[in-house]
Structure formats: C-alpha cells, structure tokens
Design a protein that fits this description.
- By secondary structure, the protein is of the alpha+beta class.
- It has seven helices and twelve strands.
- Strand 7 (161-168), helix 6 (180-189) and strand 8 form a beta-alpha-beta unit.
- Helix 4 packs across helix 5 and helix 4 packs parallel to helix 7 (233-254).
- It is globular and about 55 Å long.
Length: 256
C-alpha cells in the first residue's frame, strides 16, 4: 500500500497533518523514540514525514493571504541558518574589518529561505523582470529590492507578491542601496503583503563577528520601529556560539 493511500482511498488532510516521526512510529507498533526504529523503518518514516510536511506546506502556501506570523517564523529560521552556516561572510579577514558584500549575504539568505516555502513560490535576488505590475521602480527610477518571495507569473495578479526584503549588513542608515522609504513605496506600489527592512548589525569582535539582526516590517502588519529578530538575548548568543564552533571546525579542516 502506498504511503498516500489508506485502504485504497487517499489520505484525508486530517490524517496527513497527524503523520510525523512520532505518530508514524506508534502506527508501526514501536515507541516514538527514533533510536528504537530499525534502519529501514526509520528511513521510510523520515521520507513519509518529509513528504507529508511538503504536502501540508503546499496547501498552506496556496492560500492568497499568508499571515505575518507564518512568514516571520520562516524568515527567522533562514536568518538563523545564514548566521550559523555562512558565518565566514561576517568574519573580518584579509586585512579588512568589513564583512562580505550585501549581494553575497543576500544570495545566501535566499538559499536558506527557499526551502521554507513550497515550490509554488519563487525566491529571487535583485529581480528586474518586466511584466504587468512587476517592474520594480520608485518615482521612475530603477530600484531593485534585494530579495523577494513571489510567483513569476508575469500577470501581476493579487496574491502572487508575498515578501520583499531590503538587507543591510553594517549600517541601516547607509546611503547606498534601498531605504525604508523606497521599500515602503515598492511594497505599496506592487501590492506585496509584507516588506522587511533587515539590519544584520554585523560588527567585528577580536577576530570574530557579532551579528545581532533587527528588522522592521511594512505592509499589512507594519512596525513603528526596528525590533530584534531574536527577542531573547540568550537566543542570539546560542546561535553565535554554534556559528563560531562550526567556523573553527572548518578552519581546522583547511590547516595543512
């Protein structure tokens, strides 16, 4: 019997939501602890659990409106993974205290953000495609947002523009690139549900880097000012500790 069928009938959405590593283990008569599963059963369990997650996410992502809380959670995960996995972008080296460029950081953020959405959405950096309601301009001047989550429909219909991100690494008041005003104008003009001005606030610190991201939201649920991405100080400390451990391990691998 296929994983998507039960007694010859498709699984209901309710059952699809119930399937997980723990529940599936109980269905097989084993305890929910993955260590009690044999290798083959564990592989099958993980595959089905992952497929179920993707199917449920695809159903959620087909909705015309996605709440800020949902988008916020997914973006927060991507930012965490950016700091941990790409910490070398922020570490000062080669005689320079500056981190890597915003383009480099944004491309990696897009890479970590894409898996947080179903394949019904496209994640693009510096998108400049022309189409109805797709030209990214402010006051007749070309202005490309750093990163967007949208659907490349070419028709500009409602519900296809989800998230627009303007990213700064060092100083949110830098004159180069976008501003809060330009981001707000683009979000409003092109009917994006959400806009985020993301300030990573990266600073050198004794050969390492401190990254303490803040964001300000625009659109359907806007903020009056910047807020920490990770509200608890202990959370960002744990993330930075993990990032430094992974970076140290990578450097050891490069030693002759």
């Amino acid at each position: 019997m296929r994983a998507t069928e039960t007694a010859g009938r498709p699984m209901t959405n309710r059952f699809m939501r119930l399937v997980s590593l723990g529940t599936l283990a109980r269905y097989t008569g084993r305890e929910s602890n993955p260590s009690n599963l044999d290798g083959r059963s564990l592989d099958i369990t993980l595959i089905i659990s992952r497929l179920t997650h993707n199917q449920v996410m695809a159903v959620t992502d087909r909705k015309s409106v996605m709440l800020r809380s949902t988008v916020e959670t997914r973006l927060r995960i991507a930012i965490r993974n950016l700091i941990v996995d790409e910490y070398s972008l922020f570490v000062p080296w080669a005689g320079s205290a500056r981190p890597a460029s915003e383009v480099a950081a944004c491309s990696q953020l897009a890479r970590h953000l894409a898996p947080q959405f179903s394949r019904t959405w496209d994640v693009d950096c510096e998108y400049n495609r022309e189409g109805i309601n797709e030209v990214k301009r402010v006051n007749q001047a070309w202005r490309r947002p750093d990163l967007i989550v949208h659907r490349r429909t070419g028709c500009g219909q409602g519900g296809h523009n989800l998230l627009m991100i303007e990213l700064k690494i060092i100083n949110a008041n830098e004159r180069s690139g976008g501003t809060e005003e330009s981001l707000s104008s683009l979000v409003e003009k092109h009917n994006y549900e959400h806009g985020v001005f993301l300030h990573l606030n990266s600073q050198p610190n004794n050969g390492n880097a401190i990254v303490n991201p803040q964001w300000k939201w625009f659109g359907t649920d806007s903020d009056p000012d910047f807020k920490p991405v990770f509200e608890r100080p202990s959370a960002i400390n744990v993330i930075l500790d993990e990032a430094r451990r992974q970076w140290a391990a990578r450097r050891r691998l490069l030693e002759p």
